[in-house]
Amino acid sequence: MSENTEDVIRHAETAARSLAEFVTDLQYRGRKIEHPAEASFIDSHLARAAGEMTTALTLLRTFVEGLRDQDRLMTDYRGEPLGEVLQRYTDSSLAAEQLADALGKARPVTEHPAHKEMPGGEQGPAAAARSLAELVTGLEYRGIEYPVEAYRIYSFLTRVAGEMRTALTLLRTSTEGLRDKELLRDETLDEAIQRYTGASVTAGELAGVLGRAYSAVGHLAYKEAPSEQEPAVRG
Fold first, then answer.
1. Residues with Cβ < 8 Å from 173, sequence gap 6 or more?
2. Which residues pair with 115 in a beta bridge?
3. Regarding predicted confidence, which is higher, 189 or 113?
4. pLDDT single digits (tens) 163-205
5. What sections of 75-146 are H helices per DSSP?
6. pTM for this structure?
7. Which of 69, 64, 80, 33 lies closest to 196 in space, CA to CA?
8. Pick from 171, 55, 194: which is nearest to 124 by CA?
9. CA–CA separation, 206 vs 103, rounded Å?
10. Contact 233, 76 (CB under 8 A)
């Protein structure tokens, strides 16, 4: 892998780390959501992140299919038939794209100023969405060449989806807590709680199918161009 490819993969890693740190802040470090605008700000960036993930997943599938069409794929030492691995990958990849798209479109994306007092501020979900946008740009202009590169990106995107699920669950819990402060009308509260609940379920399903795509790509190896020597396998 080239240094440029490492830079692309690093964007996916940064997105996962940003969300993990944000979730840790809310769970264990005393950060709290104290106003509906804060929850809306976080949710908006989670929706943006899901939208960027949808594009990234489509690009990754296109690259893997391109390697298949060029006859550059083979299965690794575990010996599972290539067709079965690719079918499992394609099915899970398409399902992930649909779930990510649904997660990004399930609620309106609104603009909110990033106040320092808001949990996450310019970090957390906002940073994750920005890193995923950079991942998309990197994939569009640099692409990937080996299955192992897709494998590493999928590992981080699976973590992103899992952290999204936890973040949305925390949004729901925090929003329920706003009832005692009378900061939301009952109908607005119920609508927000329902939205966060549904989105957290979708994010959990997304993490599951991404895990299957990640596992399938892990069975793929790169087949060198035909030569007099035995093909070398790159994971």
1. none
2. none
3. 189
4. 999 999 999 888 887 766 555 455 577 788 888 999 999 999 9
5. 82-105, 124-141
6. 0.86
7. 33
8. 171
9. 9
10. yes
